[in-house]
Amino acid sequence: MTSVAEETSGEFPLALRAAITASGLSLDRIQYRLRMRGISISVPTLSHWQSGRRRPERPESLRALVELEQVLAVPPRSLRSLLGPPRPRGRYARPAPAFPADGLIPLSVQDRAEVGALGGLEAVFVRQVLRAERNGPDRWPLHWDIDPGHVPEVVASRHCATGRIGVDRREGVLSAELLFDSPLRHGETIIMDYRIVYPPRRSRLSGDGFARRFPVTTKNYLLDLSFAPTRTPLRCVRSQSPSGENVTQFAELVPNATGSAHHVAFDVTGRIGVRWEW
Predict the structure, then answer these.
(1) Do 216 and 121 have their domain in common?
(2) Domain range for residue 158?
(3) For the chain, what is the domain count?
(4) Per-residue pLDDT tens for 52-81?
(5) H or E element, residue 56
């Protein structure tokens, strides 16, 4: 078999394209696996990288490339070493988007993620406590990472109702509005229950991990992970990346005799994720 280095003659776009071909993964699946590692990158960007129209230069892109080498199972730095010096940059830099839930502070989030016998998520049950910082908030914006070919259902169940829903398959994001029973007054709190449901017959497509992002500090977070009795993972690893830090902390999560594992965190910002291996 021809190695990536032999086939590409040291050029980054060709090396990346060869690695993607050798992996057998589509760009959609690569994007999804990167998302599970805390890396948000669009399919068009990956396409531009492998075609040579663009290349990773910004710090977040270079961090993405580290994870991409692992996803594609190529040697460390085998792609990064081919980049060469950065190009001059100017008006193409864009500011990071602001947190969209104006006037609401998340106090608590509880996720109960159920993994089915096929190995993927079947459902995530969410309980969230919010506090209004002004009069008038009447909805919570939900953004959920998805496999572009496998869109789950959003089901509101307590103190909220489903409003507008949009799916961006290119970016791999499901967006929804969860409408409160009534507008909140300043200082008032609300407990919302909703769930994300995947068709059981296709749950194997929902991935081998789960992650939650916290754009603003949340006082406490509970992740309760439940596996089907007939299929317990060989390994379960938690990762946590605080906002503003480039360091990711890893820890083993060991399912108990009933096939469940949990993690509790306080004053959380950034990202908490769990990946499992069969």
Answers:
(1) yes
(2) 104-277
(3) 2
(4) 777 787 767 888 888 999 999 998 888 888
(5) none
